[in-house]
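Batch manifest, entry 17 of 40.
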Amino acid sequence: MKSPGRLAARALLPKSVRIWMLSIWVITKSPDRKAIILYKLRSAARVVLAKSVRIRMLSIWAIMWSPDRKAIFLYKLRARLAVAFNGLSNIALKLAISLGPKFSAARLRFGRPRTLWGVTPILTLPLKAKADRELGFRSESLVYVTYFITSRFDVILTRPYALAIRYGQSLAFQRLVLTWALLRYDVFHFFADRGLIDSSARLQHNFEELAALRKAGKRVYIYAYGADVRTRQVTLALGRWNACVECLEPPKYCTCHDAEAQTYISQLAKSVTALITLADMLPYMPMAKYINYWPLDLDRIGRASPRGTSGPLRIAHAPNHSHLKGSKYFEQTLEKLKAQGYQIEYCKIQGVPNGQVLAMFADSDVVVDQFVAGAYGYTALEGMALGKPVISFVRSADMVEAPNECPIINATPDDIEQVLLWLIHNRDHLPDIGEQGLRYVQRWHCVSAVAARLGRLYQETANFPPRILRRIEEMQKREDARRNAISVVAGWQHPFQVGKQLDSSLASSG
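Output type: structure tokens
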């Protein structure tokens, strides 16, 4: 006999409802009720929810039941944050491009432009920023990484940059750095190998960054330091002795490829305010302006005391890459002279901080720069600043400031033996050469001397308001007076002067 409840249900409820209720009752009594409920819910979800929503819910369910759910959750969160961070950096950059001209116009109107020097961690980068400050600008140097040579930069982003790389956000981070820079600075100085945003091409700028700088109305200057523009065929055509003559691994150290580099430099010239180069880089950047832009911090270097004229001739050499300096030719000649009985002490140092290099130079009689590249480098300037005679190969007098004052002892591998013999026989002449080297860098390579040359660059290319130009002119007048107050040493001349033919009779005299 059927119960009154079931009879009432049959009378009051539709058959479909009664079947649904019976199904629920059966499920609740089943030992597999959990699996059945999940099956029913999934069936209902298939009818009610879109496929993308069902997949998302299934993914969440799978993560929640996974033993690695914490790692998976962090990975998913990191991916979401990466998308958001990337989108935010794009929006911020577009906003900075639109606001950048207004910020710069306001600063220029008040006569206080800001300049940025970056990003390659060259030793002189903070000194170039200091040179701009001599002109009355607010200037800073910025790098993402530092080398063992020095870490004396104004803005060092090593830690946040490493964190961004760790989480795969280096591009978004660099984009935010550019955003900040567009709002903060008015003039940008970079070397030719990179800017604030990495490029997909080796030793090249990101042209999207240059376009952003141009849209924001910024002045942009690109400089060469050597490897960033040096190409193989152009270098080999310079003469018997050149920076490529001993290179066994092109293009490991330099850009090397001539056609590719020419195309890049041409594109670069169209994208910036001006290309700037030293004289020895002009063959690679023929459309560039020539300015000698290696400054020295003479207060930090100080002057070393002369060592006297007795004892072995102590020679110091600190090559970063020996094949670019012709070190092997020098060392072979040293061994030959030592075998003949000449007293020479050779001190070679590599891969150490700049302070240790300067200490070794200070405790030497002569500093060796290079014999094959054809232009003196920063080593030569540091040696002269310490009051030491410097040996280096300078291809032409056009490559130095005031060549008649330049005391560098000019030598190629062909001349090394002759030069060393003259130094050994003329030890009493070395102090005068060293003193002239110190005065030479005081006159032409101190920070204020480079600042005056940068001022000339701004006068010719930056289109600054008259207020800023007048301040530059005043600084240049002060610099002329400072330089003229430093006299040249009398009687420092030697037979190996830059730009002069070797006088064999003088060279052999002792």
